[in-house]
Amino acid sequence: MNFILRLLLTALAVVILAKLLPGVSVDGYLTAIIVALVLALLNFIVKPVLVLFTLPVTILTLGLFLLIINAIIIFMADAFVGGFDVDGWLIAIVFSLLLSLVQSILFSILKSD
């Protein structure tokens, strides 16, 4: 039940950010839920592998390369989901940063209940 609620909150964050950021578009609420599910799967399966392979670069850049890895995850979700579009690297990095911020705010509200 907690996973479904977190998934719906992530979908809500995706819709809000798509309305705020000019380079991000989502066709509808169902597409946002699919994007949230794909992001959850990519963060669970692909991100640890990318972090492991790029560990020397991540250490060399003091962790800033994780922003690029997050942008790659966003672009992969863009490739997998048809109604979700992200235009450019800078927008993907800003989207991933803001998505993490909004998720942490929404999940902290969820945890306090």
Describe the protein:
Keywords: Membrane, Transmembrane, Transmembrane helix. It comes from Christiangramia salexigens. This is Phage holin family protein. The chain has helices at residues 2-20, 29-53, 55-60, 65-80, 89-112, and strands at residues 24-26, 84-86. It contains five helices and two strands. The longest helix is centred in the middle third of the chain and has 25 residues, at 29-53. The chain has 113 residues and is mainly alpha-helical. A two-stranded antiparallel sheet has the order 1-2. It has one domain (2-112). Helix 1 (2-20) packs across helix 5, helix 2 (29-53) packs across helix 4 and helix 4 crosses helix 5.
Task: Give the SSE layout.
Blueprint: H1 2-20, E1 24-26, H2 29-53, H3 55-60, H4 65-80, E2 84-86, H5 89-112
Antiparallel strand pairs: 1-2
The largest sheet has its strands arranged as: 1-2
Number of helices: 5
Number of domain modules = 1
Q: What structural category do the secondary elements indicate?
A: mainly alpha
Amount of helix: over 70%
Largest β-sheet summary: 2 strands, antiparallel
State Rg: 14 Å
How far apart lie the N and C ends?
14 Å
Tally of DSSP β-strands:
2
Name the overall outline.
Answer: globular
Question: What's the SSE pattern?
Answer: HEHHHEH
**Which regions have little confidence, pLDDT < 50, spanning 5+ residues?**
none
Strand content: 5-15%
Overall pLDDT level: 93
